[in-house]
Amino acid sequence: MQPAITGTFLDEITHDIPSQNWDDRAWEADFAAMKQAGIDTVILIRAGYKEQATFNSQILQQHIGILPVYTDLVELFLTLAAKYNMTFYFGTYDSGNYWLNGDYQTETDLNKAFCEEFITRYGNHQGFGGWYISHEINTYNDGMMRVYEDLSHHLKQLRDVPILISPYIKGIKQFGQTAISLDKHIKEWESVFARLEGIVDIVAFQDGNVPYQDLPHYLQANQTLASKYRLTSWSNVESFDRDFPFKFPPIDFRKLRYKIEQAEAANIDKLITFEFSHFMSPHSSYPAAQNLYQQYQQWISRR
């Protein structure tokens, strides 16, 4: 079997898709399914968002006032990652407030303390192998460049492991008439990568915001830019469908296969997805995800 997708986000805390209300045993069953599908990398999409957190953070309790945390998901995910021989990327905290309102320094300082707390509590786990800066951008933003720069330097001092970002394209599927052209996208990300060279290690653009016929051009442009500025290029192959009037069903397998094939044709280094557990898992609450898993497994077994 030649797996195509070898990494997935773990979407807790959920933001715009529903919780599946899994307990520890359900999560372990899903990690086993991920392993069967060829997943070797799991990325916590955010360790906290607004007043929710994945572990009982004293930093967030002090500065934000988080809701009770009944299950330590970070401990659970790190333990399962080690058991199934996966690399775990720790996703940072998204205030949903400070950085969006221009207070970039508060966002950075809060995350520095939060990530220090993570290292103190979980740094000895063998599964931990990367950082994920959860703040997503689609064009050049000087304030966010300062967040990335300052926070990345601090993260490397805490533990010198790869730093991943997963930006999105300001494409027509999400932005309509305010979407930008491919040429503008290239210009914007030339400016971003010029600032992030040597600071961020991996970029995994989300692939769902542009029409399918335009995707190969964006994939090639992203790969070329990343190579120019010495970033490793991954692709975030979205396994949910943006073409429906509601958020968000599992994607049609034919669309998923097309996106995988185009990413491979562009020589992308690694394919990850948002996100296996909801949209591709045999244990998902969506029956269509269970069917997608079967079709995907049948396909990769023939590759």
UniProtKB/TrEMBL annotation:
Question: Which InterPro entries does the entry mention?
Answer: DUF4434 (IPR027849), GH (IPR017853)
Query: Gene3D superfamilies of this UniProt entry?
Result: Glycosidases
The organism named in the record is: Dactylococcopsis salina (strain PCC 8305) (Myxobactron salinum)
Q: What is the top-level taxon of the source organism?
A: Bacteria
- Record protein name field: DUF4434 domain-containing protein
Stretches assigned to the DUF4434 domain: 5-285
